[in-house]
Write a structure and sequence with these properties.
heterotrimer; A mainly beta; B alpha/beta; C alpha/beta; A: mainly beta; three-stranded antiparallel beta sheet; 8 strands; 9% helix; B: alpha/beta; Peroxisomal Thiolase, Chain A, domain 1; nine-stranded mixed beta sheet; two-stranded antiparallel ribbon; 39% helix; globular
């Protein structure tokens, strides 16, 4: 169980894809960090992730962890966004046997799960094939 | 720093041990190692355990297990680095002896995994990934390694069959290890046809859910010599970290943490990959063994798959990998795995590996990793 | 001061189920639904889609057209009968997701299928009153039909969002007139803690849908001093294909006027999203100077009427986001009844 505070803390990333760009070397961190692991600068500017990208690798989860059983089988991929940042997310609204590396995808706002029958609902991003 | 030796080992017959609790499992292996070493005391104990809290609801293992050991109020330290917890427990014990702080140290690992159902076990293991940015999205460990497998296949043309050959080979080795969880022959065809878990990996590409413990005793080499017992020398100990999240890595199809730790360890031991007689590596999934053998410099990047298929890594091959059966066949009680690897090296280098004995080995290596390679522990051992 | 729509956008889920697939399971006559109610298939939300996610995507489409700073949105209302939480607003998620917070008034509306147009009505009125610079009204639903009930053939998912403003150069459709017609008529309801709504069978027709929609439409046109001939387009609440077609015909509208917004035959009934999505589909293709009549209907019961006059601005905004009908026709994924039942939470995996 995630609990409301842990969920809420990541809202800027999960709803609005807010990232931090190193003011010195330009590396983008998602989620934001306190220090750049490339140039050690502690100064960042706020930026927003690109919302389209392509599949760099992916899998289809058939044995799911607790909380995702109702959704299996589902696809998860590492997506290289058009700004170069890589993120992990589910790929939805797709034919599982037609997914491929390099396929173009875009972000959509989706519900990622719920905390049992009475807990909070978890929202965030998933990817959908562009064409 | 003093030279350090391993003088005793212990391990249960791993598997689904319904009748054994975490404390009983651990104590069996610990007492066996102490007896095997021929010591009447230990100065300190380390235990590697990934997630007793999620698996059995018990934390505070340092105190609980030192209490069970019955050797007085010795320092008992639990360490955690996911599936590399055992390797880390060994390193901490090694550092304690090498530094002169302690003389006789018991390094152990344990995981009791079968008290929860499959979904809860999958969840507990997934906690080794980035919970907010990987786990939140429903990724599992088979899923993360499956994504690495697909990237490796794309980059190098690694085939499904090459992955399957790793499992078949490790099951062949496991048949020769009486303590392995699976005493079962598996063919590459059988692996390829096994129930899909996370495409392209099937259930026979994955290490199992296992209850088990392992323990080894470390002492200064000087003391080992004085005791006149068989021992092996710890020639190198290296530990590295990499990004927690797989998506933050430069490459998805290689293990930078393993490559870095290997370079450090070879330098410390004064040898290179060609000098190794055999290695015990972290084959949590078939693709992992291929990527690890490449990271260790045994094969060039992309050549690990063809090597596995050609039998280069089989018992009797040029460089036998996972003679114990590996995580795949021996089982993978996560915290215990890194210690059991050391046990196998001890048996091999002291000529006690019975039917799976490598011929006249001198150098053995263990590679144990946590998560998708975010933690790596490499140790090199030399025959006494 | 003229106020009107400065941005609009819809969201249609890609999954569908055909009437035949549902009829097969319950031994119903598919042809009766296809001919009698003019329903061929309906949209189905995946387990990861709900009123909130649909609202966010529709709102983002509206903002792609409006291109204003979301910080200037002073009010946001979502009308739905399927708010994911019984207590906790849907609108707060949407406001944060589109970056329109914290200086914003947010509320969730409920009035059966009229909740969406209600939200639009209030948002529009706040702009007109000068209370806020911009306001957003959204109608969205992932409505449930009980297994085997007639509603199961129509209850669908989708939504549309409208951003209202008062700067003449930004307005794509001026709101010329509004009128609301409301009575207490219990034709459809869902009690607290009940999963599926219930309805009053044929009572939902004449005394409910038709009385309210026809009365509201007539009075709206009367106030505006307009007749059906003055409109290029009309859209009515569409619980199925038949009701709006009959209402439109009775009022004297030609099929060419109502066909563009008539989405129900392949979309189903998106409840609070139904007439707003129809309006969105019309705005996607309307020409400057066109007039649109919109009449919603919500059980319980009431209708909101709007007269929209399309401006030159519309052609600039039309290409900036995916069209409603383009989404409706985009690679539909057809489901069997079992998967549909799983998606809609009618069945669960035993361990979950």
């Amino acid at each position: 169980m995630l609990g409301p505070a842990r969920y809420w803390r990541e809202v800027p990333q999960r709803y609005r894809y807010e990232a931090a760009k190193c003011a010195k070397c330009g590396k983008v961190f998602f989620p934001p960090r306190l220090v750049c692991n490339k140039c050690h600068s502690k100064e960042f500017t706020q930026t927003t992730l690109a919302q389209t990208g392509s599949i760099e690798t992916f899998t289809v989860i058939r044995v799911a962890p607790t909380g995702f059983g109702d959704e299996a089988p589902y696809a998860v991929g590492i997506i290289k966004l058009d700004d170069g940042v890589r993120i992990t997310a589910q790929i939805t609204d797709c034919e599982l046997d037609k997914l491929d590396i390099g396929q173009k995808v875009r972000l959509e706002f989706r519900r990622l799960g719920k905390e049992g029958e009475s807990g909070i609902l978890r929202y965030g991003y998933k990817f959908v094939p562009v064409a | 720093m003093r030279d350090v030796a391993v003088i005793g080992v212990g391990m249960n017959h791993w598997g689904e041990l319904w009748e054994k609790s975490l404390r009983n499992l651990w104590t069996e292996a610990a007492l066996e190692a102490v007896e095997h070493a021929g010591v009447d005391r230990v100065d300190a104990m380390t235990v590697g355990c990934m997630s007793s809290g999620l698996f059995v609801g018990q934390e505070h293992l340092g105190a609980m297990l030192a209490d069970q050991l019955g050797m007085g109020p010795i320092p008992g330290t639990r360490v955690e680095s996911a599936c590399a917890s055992g390797g880390l427990a060994f390193r901490q014990a090694y550092l304690a002896v090498a530094s002169g702080v302690s003389d006789i140290v018991l390094a152990t690992g344990v995981e009791k995994m079968t008290d929860v159902d499959g979904g809860a076990a999958t969840y507990a293991l997934s906690a080794a990934a980035d919970q907010e940015y990987e786990g939140y999205h429903g990724i599992t460990f088979p899923g993360l390694y499956a994504m690495m497998a697909r990237a490796h296949m794309k980059a190098f043309g690694t085939t499904r069959r090459q992955l399957a050959c790793v499992a078949a080979k490790n099951h062949d080795n496991g048949l020769l290890n009486p303590l392995a969880q699976y005493q079962m022959k598996v063919t590459p065809e059988g692996v390829m046809a096994s129930v899909p878990v996370a495409d392209p990996l099937g259930v026979l590409d994955c290490s199992p859910i296992t209850d088990g413990a392992a323990a080894v005793v470390l002492v200064p080499v000087e003391l080992a010599k004085k005791m006149g017992r068989p021992y092996i020398r710890v020639a190198a100990s290296a530990q590295t970290t990499d990004t927690l999240a797989l998506h933050d890595r430069e490459e998805l199809h290689s293990l930078a943490g393993t490559a870095k730790a290997a370079a450090m360890a070879y330098k410390e031991a004064g040898i290179g990959p060609k000098d190794l007689s055999f290695a015990e590596v972290h084959d949590c999934f078939t693709i992992a063994e291929i990527m690890v053998t490449e990271g260790l410099g045994l094969f060039e990047k992309g050549k690990g798959g063809p090597a596995a298929e050609a039998g280069v890594t089989a018992l009797g091959g040029k460089i036998p990998i996972n003679t114990s059966g590996g995580l795949k066949s021996k089982g993978h009680p996560v915290g215990a795995t890194g210690i059991a690897q050391v046990r196998e090296v001890f048996l091999q280098l002291t000529g006690q590996a019975d039917k799976r004995q490598v011929k006249n080995p001198r150098w053995g290596l263990t590679q144990n990793m946590g998560g998708t390679g975010a933690s790596t522990l490499i140790h090199i051992f030399e025959r006494a | 001061m003229d106020v009107g729509i400065v941005g609009w956008g819809a969201y249609v889920p890609r999954h569908r189920i055909k009437v035949e697939e549902i009829a097969k399971v319950w031994g119903s006559d598919a042809e009766a639904y296809k001919k009698g109610l003019m329903l061929r298939e309906k949209s189905v939300p995946t387990p990861d889609q709900d009123t909130i996610t649909i609202s966010v995507e529709a709102a983002r489409n509206a903002l792609r057209r409006a291109k204003i700073d979301p910080q200037k949105i002073g009010a946001l209302y979502i009308g739905s009968e399927s708010h994911p939480y019984a207590v906790k607003p849907s609108g707060t998620v949407v406001a944060e997701a589109i970056g329109a917070f914290p200086s914003i008034h947010v509320a969730d509306f409920e009035f059966a299928c009229k909740a969406g147009s209600e939200g639009m009505f209030v948002a529009l009125s706040l702009v007109k009153a000068g209370q806020v610079e911009y306001a957003m009204g959204i109608g969205a639903d992932t409505s449930q039909g009980a297994p085997g009930d007639a509603l199961e053939f129509s209850a669908a998912a989708g939504g549309a969002a409208f951003l209202f403003g008062g700067k003449p150069e930004e307005i794509a459709a001026v709101c010329e007139h509004t009128y609301s017609f409301t009575t207490d008529t219990p034709d459809f309801w869902r009690r607290e803690y009940q999963f599926y709504p219930r309805h009053a069978g044929r009572f939902t027709g004449e005394p409910a849908y038709f009385k309210h929609v026809l009365s509201c439409a007539k009075r709206t046109m009367e106030i505006a001093n307009l007749t059906p001939k003055d409109f290029q387009w009309a859209v009515f609440h569409q619980p199925n294909g038949k009701f709006p077609a009959r209402a439109a015909t009775e009022l004297g509208f030609q099929k060419s006027q109502w066909e563009q917004g008539w989405l129900a035959p392949t979309l189903g009934n998106t409840y609070s999203g139904a007439s707003p999505m129809g309006l969105s589909a019309i705005l996607d293709v309307a020409k400057p100077g066109d007039r649109i009549l919109m009449v919603s209907y919500g059980s319980g019961a009431g209708s909101d009427g709007f007269v929209w006059r399309v401006t030159d601005q519309v052609t600039k905004l039309q290409p900036l986001a995916r069209h409603t009908r383009a989404q409706l026709e985009d690679r539909p994924i057809y489901l069997d009844y079992g998967t549909y039942a799983k998606f809609r939470g009618k069945i669960h995996k035993v361990t979950e």
